[in-house]
Amino acid sequence: PMPTVAIVGRPNVGKSTLFNRLVGRKLALVDDRPGVTRDRREGEARLGHLLFTIIDTAGLEEADSESLAGRMRAQTEAAIAEADAVLFVIDARAGLLPADQPFAELVRRADKPVILLANKAEGGAGLAGAYEAFGLGLGDPVPVSAEHGEGMGQLLDALAEVL
Ligand code: GDP
Ligand code: MG
């Protein structure tokens, strides 16, 4: 069976942009089941020779809801539980923010292979942010740009090691 990879991180780091890049329009599908999985998207991804199911997490359609943090957490936990590997994404330009920490904690607890992605690093931007991300204890950050498609070779190498 195809392995499953979950994309995890706080809102606005570029998870959905990465999802779209890995899935491509043709294979994208939207999962609109109710409950914590409502905002979740799952698709068939291809990166180089690797084929895998990819899960995007944490839509923000009800950003005013008090239960939003709880729902995002539950959704993230569910995605991690299903995954063979986790892509933990931070925004290298913003650096490490307090909002990253609860997601990092869930990832740490999961005891699954984690690839730390420092996104928005196109053209060598965000080096300081990537350096900060070392402090998470989740390994060496891989600088990528989901929007511009940079660092995909390094992401492929990292995924190929754990899938
Ligand atoms: P999500 O909330 O984690 O799913 O993040 P999104 O994929 O919705 O992206 C949030 C914002 O970051 C959007 O404005 C994207 O265009 C932007 N973004 C995503 N990836 C990149 C990137 O690689 N570089 C830059 N500069 N912006 C990005
Ligand atoms: Mg998103």
UniProtKB/TrEMBL annotation:
Taxonomic superkingdom: Bacteria
Residue ranges of domain EngA-type G in the record: 3-163
Binding of GTP 1, residues: 9-16, 56-60, 119-122
Function: GTPase that plays an essential role in the late steps of ribosome biogenesis.
Family: Belongs to the TRAFAC class TrmE-Era-EngA-EngB-Septin-like GTPase superfamily. EngA (Der) GTPase family.
Subunit structure and binding partners: Associates with the 50S ribosomal subunit.
Protein name: GTPase Der
Whole-protein residues included: 2 to 164 of 447
